[in-house]
Amino acid sequence: MNSPDTHLQQACTRPAHCSEEEWALRCDLAHCYHLIDYMGWTETIFNHISARLPGPAHHYLVNPFGLNYTEVTPANLLKIDLEGHKIEPSPYDGNPAGFALHAALHEARDDVRCIIHTHTTPVSAIAQKSAGFDYNNFYGAQLYGRVGYHAFEGITLFDEEKPRMVASLGDKHILVLRNHGIAVAESSIAKTFFLLWTVQRAAEIQCAGAALPGPDTQLPNDIREKCADLTAMLIRDSGFADKFFSAMIRKMHADKGPSW
Q1: How would residue 11 be classed by pLDDT, with cut points 50, 70 and 90?
Q2: Which of 153, 156, 220, 243 is most deeply buried (CB count within 10 A of its CB)?
Q3: 51, β-bridge pairs
């Protein structure tokens, strides 16, 4: 049996067959899994985060099914093709419920390089409401015009649902899976994590506001659009999301120690 020190060394050492670019992606994705746990957004061993690898084959990295998010390392992430087959040997398998969602979006959207799927209580509560997000709080306004909605068809296991999920997302980056949860998709891991944080805060505040008496103050659509456009511009044209992601990793490590 390997010692804890051996496990740590294996988790931190780039294998000879793995390119530096892929290893950097693996490290970022593993950190993202640990951050989702740190923020309290996990659903035990369920849900999934994927990152597309460079190249035309649309291969992507995803968590080994059965591991806690805190047990994910750069080395044990699975490399998967669009059919859910492992590209490299691993003692672990993936979660079949994630293949349809991730494969569909990675194949259809070349601008999407990371997808995060969660079931947090506030997000799932919004997902079951017919009105969805109301865009009336500071974070909700930043989502205006950026959210697609997909009708619940049961657990996402089947290829036949893929084109409908793609159509529901359209050219947007947030997909509310009605009566279920959410998937957010962006052009990098850092941008996807920041978008998820924004969505989570919007859902938390909307749920808290709904519990208070009295009507909400409605924001006009032009203000919502201004907020959403500005946030999208900051994410697209600056290192805003990268700074946020790095800061959260530092905070997590300061509180809990190294991830692996």
Answers
A1: low
A2: 156
A3: 61, 114
List helix spans (H) across the chain. Answer: 4-12, 20-38, 96-108, 121-128, 138-141, 162-169, 189-210, 221-237, 240-256
Starting from the edge strand earliest in sequence, which strands make up the sheet with 48-52, in order?
78-80, 60-62, 48-52, 114-118, 181-186, 174-177, 147-150
Q: Which residues contact 7 (CB under 8 A, 6 or more apart)?
A: none
Q: Are strands 147-150 and 174-177 parallel, antiparallel or unpaired?
A: parallel
Phi, psi dihedral angles at 257 (to 5 degrees): 90, 180
Q: Could you count the other beta carbons within 10 Å of the beta carbon of residue 95?
A: 18
* pLDDT tens-digit series, residues 113-154: 999 999 999 999 999 999 999 999 999 999 999 999 999 999
**Three-class SS of residue 171?**
coil
Dist. CA 33–CA 42, nearest whole Å: 9
Whole-angstrom distance, CA of residue 168 vs CA of residue 175: 7
Task: Assess whether pLDDT exceeds 70 at residue 8.
Answer: no
The set of residues, in sequence order, having a beta carbon less than 8 Å from that of 217 and lying 6+ positions away, is 136
Q: What are phi and psi of 48, to 5 degrees?
A: -160, 150
Q: Name the token pair of 174.
A: 């947030």
What is the per-residue burial (b if ≥16 Cβ within 10 Å, else e) of 39-55? bebbeeeebbbbbbbee
